[in-house]
Amino acid sequence: LAEEHPAVLDWLLSELLPHIRNAVILLSGRRGETSLDQALGGIPGKCMLPIDLLGLTESEALEYFEAVVGSSRSSGDQRDTTVAEVVERWSDEDRRAIFYCLCDEGEPPTVRPILLALAIDHRVVAGEPLPALTRPLAEARGLTAGGREGIRDELGGALVQMLHEQRRPDDEVIRALGWLRKGGGAGLVARVT
How many CB atoms are closer than 10 A to CB 118? Predict the structure, then answer.
């Protein structure tokens, strides 16, 4: 397998980052010795500071669920109110089971926040929880590393499937613009949209 090299990366490395002043730029990705790490570290006069974001412990995950409810309720947006109502339907035991279904191995076990966000998104959009996340807490705690990995893969697959099934009018425009070659003029963009 080869490392992907998106076209925007050349622009980022040669145009934006070398010329930007007094700013903090956040880039997210998986850690590792890659050519991107080397390229970012090689920009003269710039400092790359890698930050490892730790997963959430069980108690922090429970706080995360509560924070989602609080911020969703306070936004005043009906869509956010729906998110709050969905999360509130999960009992404390349900939330703990979700944590143990999605957590990484280690002591103490931790879960990547994005996985909790995806579990919530799935529940909101699908209208029902992912069946793999609805097991009893004792069973979730007893899952093997492979079992948890399978659940994470199932969650990802379910989300991709939902995106394909629940199309909105904008989806076709976004898809078409994604295939548009660099340099597409206003006339072509107007025709696509």
Answer: 18
For the beta carbon of residue 116, count every other beta carbon within 10 angstroms: 21
What confidence tens digit (pLDDT) does each residue in 153-169 have?
A: 999 888 878 877 776 65
Q: What mean pLDDT is reported for the chain?
A: 81
CA distance 117 to 48: 28
Q: How far apart are CA 140 and CA 137, in angstroms?
A: 5
**Block residue for tokens 């002591």:** 107
> What's the CA gap between 138 and 150, in Å, rounded?
18
DSSP symbols for 80-91: HHHHHHHHHHS-
Angle between helices 58-75 and 92-102 (to 10 degrees): 120
Matching residue, tokens 């930007």: 20
User: What number of other Cβ atoms are within 10 A of residue 155's Cβ?
Assistant: 20
What average pLDDT score do residues 120-134 get? 88
16-33 pLDDT, tens per residue? 888 888 888 877 766 666
What is the DSSP secondary structure assignment for residue 40, as one 8-state letter? H
Give the C-alpha separation, 2 to 19, whole Å.
29
pTM of full prediction above 0.85:
no
Residues 47, 15: Cα–Cα separation, whole Å: 16
- Single-letter code of the amino acid located at 33: E
